[in-house]
Each structure stands twice: as structure tokens, then as C-alpha cells.
Specification:
The complex is a heterodimer of chains A (about 110) and B (about 120). With about 110 residues, chain A is mainly beta. Chain A is built from no helices and eleven strands. In chain B, strands 2, 4, 5, 6, 9, 10 and 11 form a seven-stranded mixed β-sheet that branches. The chains are: A mainly beta (about 110), B mainly beta (about 120).
Chain lengths: ~110, ~120
């Protein structure tokens, strides 16, 4: 079955540094991959979508890469700020449909 | 959370009672979803809808049913609540949007359900 792995340990970094989060998947070839941000007590918020034929996508301080050979996506936040502290979820499409399967998320803590 | 509301936001109920959660959207999006979120499991899809009266099961559908009689409303019913259904429930919506293959989902604020 499809499986998504995100580092369950929190990532703790200093303000101004680049945060890099990893999403690995197995037993599947998704057509696209998405990243979401979730703050405590709130619903996830969509950040970026990258398609299988795209290697990299950028949005302001965010950058996502997608390596279909390694079955891995990396999510980067450059010049990180304490306000970036949150849990970040990756999600893959199920069978190129409108259904998603989510990873359990990685918590990011940016220290001032 | 704009355009998506969930009710109730919090509920405590007893084992064996039926519970209905409501998701309401004002975006006229075609697709609606119900997820549950538990520590260590992330978001898991319960049921989804691809149009009025068109619904299908997700990966954790046992013990749940859904209905969608209008585009804007998607109801999740726990037929006989159990303690294992204590969770945070999120509704989400999506649509094809202006560009093809716009599959991003937009989430509601969640409902925290406790079954005692």
C-alpha cells in the first residue's frame, strides 16, 4: 500500500537559517505532491503543489523539489522566521484523483 | 478557513449515541472530504463526495456514513459512537479551479469530538 514518511522528530533551527523538511514515499508514483502548513488547533493550509514533471517550485521564501527517482520531496524555507514555526504536512494524490494521502507531518520550531 | 465552516466545533458524547457533524461551504466547490486527525496517524480520509448525492469511502470509513443533498453541505454521521472515534475531524473542499489539475484542498477549522 502507499506509504508516506515524514520525520516525526521536530526540527529546531535558528532564525535566519534555511529549514529543510523531507517527505519520502513508497509503493506509488504520484502525479503530484503538495505541502501544507498546520498551526495548533487549526486546519491545514495549502502552500505549494508540484507535479511529477516538475523538478522544483518556488513561492516567495518557499522551495519544493520533487525527485521521482528517489521518491522524495524536499521542502525548504529560506531565511526562516519564528512565525514559520508550525507543522508541515506533505500529501500525495491517490491514483491521480482528487483524493490525497497525507504524511503525519514534521513540526518546525524556529528560535529567535 | 474562509468559506468553510464546521459545526459543532466541540462535542462530548457518550458511547453508543449517534453523532452528526456538519460541513458547510460557500465556495461552490465540487469536491468535499471528511478526515480525522489523530496523533501519530496524520490526516486520514473517511469519506469524500464528488457531487451532490455522489459519495465514496476513504481509508477509514467503518462506523461512519455521509450524505450530501446540496452542494454546500456535507454531513458526517457516526452511527453509534465509540471511544476509538474520539478525534479531531476536518472537512475539506477542492475544485478544478481555473487551471486544469488544481487539486489543492482547503480545510475547515475542525471539530473536536470526545466519546466517553
Amino acid at each position: 500500500s502507499q506509504k508516506i514518511e515524514q520525520n516525526s522528530e521536530a526540527l529546531n533551527i535558528q532564525e535566519g537559517k534555511t529549514a529543510t523538511l523531507t517527505c519520502n514515499y513508497t509503493n506509488y508514483s504520484p502525479a503530484y505532491l503538495q505541502w501544507y502548513r498546520q498551526d495548533p488547533g487549526r486546519g491545514p493550509v495549502f502552500l505549494l503543489l508540484i507535479r511529477e514533471n516538475e523538478k522544483e517550485k518556488r513561492k516567495e521564501r518557499l522551495k519544493v523539489t520533487f525527485d521521482t527517482t528517489l521518491k522524495q520531496s524536499l521542502f525548504h524555507i529560506t531565511a526562516s522566521q519564528p512565525a514559520d514555526s508550525a507543522t508541515y504536512l506533505c500529501a500525495l494524490d491517490m491514483d491521480s484523483s482528487y483524493k490525497l494521502i497525507f504524511g503525519s507531518g514534521t513540526r518546525l520550531l524556529v528560535r529567535p | 478557513d474562509a468559506g468553510i465552516t464546521q459545526s459543532p466545533r466541540h462535542k462530548v458524547t457518550e458511547t453508543g449515541t449517534p453523532v452528526t457533524l456538519r460541513c458547510h461551504q460557500t465556495e461552490n466547490h465540487r469536491y468535499m472530504y471528511w478526515y480525522r486527525q489523530d496523533p501519530g496517524h496524520g490526516l486520514r480520509l473517511i469519506h469524500y463526495s464528488y457531487g451532490v448525492k455522489d459519495t465514496d469511502k476513504g481509508e477509514v470509513s467503518d462506523g461512519y456514513s455521509v450524505s450530501r443533498s446540496k452542494t454546500e453541505d456535507f454531513l458526517l454521521t457516526l452511527e453509534s459512537a465509540t471511544s476509538s472515534q474520539t478525534s479531531v475531524y476536518f472537512c475539506a473542499i477542492s475544485d478544478q479551479g481555473r487551471q486544469a489539475y488544481s487539486y489543492e484542498q482547503y480545510f475547515g477549522p475542525g471539530t473536536r469530538l470526545t466519546v466517553t
